[in-house]
Amino acid sequence: MALMKFRSPLRGASPLPAFLEGVSIEVMPRTAAGVGDFRDHLAAGTQVFVAHIDGTGSADMHATVARLAAEGMRPVPHIPARIVPDRATLTDWVAAYRDAGATSALLLGGGLNAPKGDFADSMQLLDTGLFGDFDRLFIAGHPEGNRDIDPSGGEAEVMRALAWKRDFAARTDASMEIVTQFCFEAQPVIEWANRLRAAGIDMPVRIGTAGPAKLQTMLKFAIMCGVGPSLRVLQRRARDVTKLLVPYEPTDFLTAIAGHAGATPDFAIRAAHVFPLGGITAATDWLARNGAND
Description:
It is built from eleven helices and eight strands. Strands 1-2-3-4-5-6-7-8 form an eight-stranded parallel barrel, surrounded by four helices. By secondary structure, it is an alpha/beta fold. It has a single domain (17-289), classed as TIM Barrel (Alpha-Beta Barrel). Keywords: Oxidoreductase. This is Methylenetetrahydrofolate reductase.
């Protein structure tokens, strides 16, 4: 499934179905184990990212990647730098993912306070040269900043890292794409995407969004993952007693992003990435209702 190209929507039609043509989704090995067959939920060729959380066994990661490939999906394993013990282990993981059917990977620092081994960030992973035959490499984006990288709350170091990766792609001819943490408010995301372009960072962006979930679940994950300014969308919703029992859905957020993307040809954000916080079935049902597989 190639990166999507936008169609001009009919007057009055929602821009969301076209935007969702290139959607991807994220799973963990333990959540994937609860899905009978991904072909019952997702279109063939959908990119399914496999999150490697600290404590997850490498065998479980490799098995999940192999299973997704066998079921017609395009698996994208996470490789968190701070979890990798050493270069030899990284070499083994990359070979195993390749053998299991992965042709791309998401390289990121990982959420640990300190590295467990030889690598501290995704730039060091890229510098190993082990990913040269992957079709595409994904890197992390942070529309609301990342205090692990910029403790002051700014974005100077985050932008510096993205510029380094842009230059890496230029000198190695690597195909690279940014995928972000989930957000809830469109305008700050649009402004961040515009700052990327102004800084000369021209890699396409896959915007993270939370799938349908109870408001309490959404607030828990948002706080746990350090979601910043757009958390106020959930806080406002929590103050409205009429919405407390109604699951959050990303329809308004993604429709706003999709509308801006459709009207702005050089807009950085070209696709969505779904975190199924309320469960894979809830997320894929929402995608189907909103035309993702039309």
